[in-house]
């Protein structure tokens, strides 16, 4: 079982405005995967969580595109005194333990290295590593990595 399966059910119930059940599924997710993934979070089709989604924390208003791979122990959320949260494009790989924080946009076909802390926008086709995250390569195509 993967965290995404429970989230898809909770998100469907949330969009249909069915009370109580999405919150119940949230607590089940927390108990099973030690993760915080609110039902209101938008996650695109074919996106998945590595290792079932253990230790993932995602903001309720975060947007994650299609075909993304989200590693274990990652955080996608806001920063102090800033209202907006990250928007992540399609076909993005988020390495284990990375942090995506603040009002930023991650483009399509991006690789975020493990334990990186990304605080600024990342253009499509880039590889980002480090603390704080720095672009080390551009012009990549994800099909070259699969």
TrEMBL record:
Keywords of this entry: Acyltransferase, ATP-binding, Nucleotide-binding, Transferase
Pfam hit, one: Hexapep
Alphabetical list of Gene3D superfamilies matching this protein: Hexapeptide repeat proteins
Assigned EC number: 2.3.1.30
Keyword Transferase: yes
Keyword Nucleus belongs to the record: no
InterPro entries assigned to the protein according to its UniProt record, in alphabetical order: Hexapep (IPR001451), LbH_SAT (IPR045304), Ser_O-AcTrfase (IPR005881), Trimer_LpxA-like_sf (IPR011004)
Molecular function via GO: ATP binding; serine O-acetyltransferase activity
Stored PANTHER family: SERINE ACETYLTRANSFERASE
Family affiliation: Belongs to the transferase hexapeptide repeat family.
Protein name as catalogued: Serine O-acetyltransferase
Organism: Mucilaginibacter lutimaris
